[in-house]
Specification:
Length: 287
């Protein structure tokens, strides 16, 4: 929680995550999602280019585990991302890594450091990241390497990954073509997590649903002012309606299916997205 807003990265404390989505389309609203079959991925039919673009979003999964123990039960985090067209890097939200490192430090006194590329590293633990691609029949994981992120002491909530294997999705183009009042579409992955009680009095926790969804929003304001500049950001979008935990790093599309930013935060009324201009800033920082 930050200033009454929730960061959108979802923390999942389980190893097995049920396979999730996506493959052939039967209209501009539906996909076949394993294991549930035909599923609506939007409330209503999407604009054609938005529908095509949202088919290429990726679930981003992080696993944190003690050093030299890659088979230990990991601390798992989840967000959303996509492959940026010009650079070929996977884009997501920086807080997926940073908030996890900070949580490990605060709750378990796990030390960390920042390496020469400005990336957080654990002293006594390692982490792995994966792009998860869900087809109609399988859940496929592709390893990722963190290569850059927005510098600390700024609000530049962007992280970049290098795919270590080719991911068979379409790369998505960035755009600044947006203005207040325009419709935009936020795509991402989230979960329905619940619990039930066993006869022995213990509580069992379970993920009952893995969800892929694209929600329609309206751009209410484009924030470009001294405060925004002072925290190291060029442009923020305030969008009508909140979105879901897990949408962090997920693309926000204009009606042409281009990425105008990524989701980073929400409160009970609004969502906030960091701009494509800021994504480009981090891409250009790669040495």
């Amino acid at each position: 929680m930050r200033n009454a807003r929730r960061l959108l990265g979802s923390f999942i404390f389980i190893i097995g995550i049920a396979p999730l989505t996506a493959a052939p389309a039967f209209g501009q609203q539906f996909e076949v999602i394993y294991p549930n079959g035909l599923t609506a991925v939007a409330e209503k039919a999407l604009p054609p280019q938005v529908y095509l673009s949202q088919q290429n979003i990726l679930e981003i999964k992080g696993e944190f585990f003690p050093k030299n123990q890659p088979d230990a039960q990991p601390w798992i985090v989840q967000a959303t991302g996509f492959i940026e067209k010009a650079s070929g890097h996977v884009v997501s939200a920086r807080h997926l890594l940073v908030e996890t490192v900070m949580d490990l430090a605060e709750r378990y006194n796990e030390p960390f450091y920042i390496d020469e590329n400005g990336v957080f590293q654990g002293v006594d633990y390692d982490y792995k990241f994966f792009a998860v691609l869900n087809t109609a029949t399988a859940r496929l994981e592709y390893p990722l390497e963190v290569v850059a992120m927005g510098p600390m002491d700024t609000y530049l909530d962007v992280i970049l990954f290098k795919p270590l294997k080719k991911i068979p999705v379409k790369n998505l183009a960035l755009s600044s073509n947006i203005k207040p009042g325009d419709k935009v579409y936020a795509s991402g992955f989230t979960t329905q997590d619940t619990h039930y009680h066993k006869a022995n009095g213990k509580t069992a926790r379970v993920t009952t649903d893995k969800i892929k969804f694209t929600a329609e929003h309206v751009v209410l304001a484009i924030l470009q002012n001294e405060t925004i500049a002072s925290i190291g950001v060029k442009k923020l979008y305030r969008l009508a309606k909140p979105t879901q935990s897990g949408f962090s790093g997920g693309p926000v599309f204009n009606t042409g299916g281009q990425v105008i930013g990524i989701m980073i935060e929400k409160d009970s009324i609004f969502s906030f997205a960091i701009s494509s201009d800021d994504i480009t800033t981090v891409i250009k920082s790669i040495k």
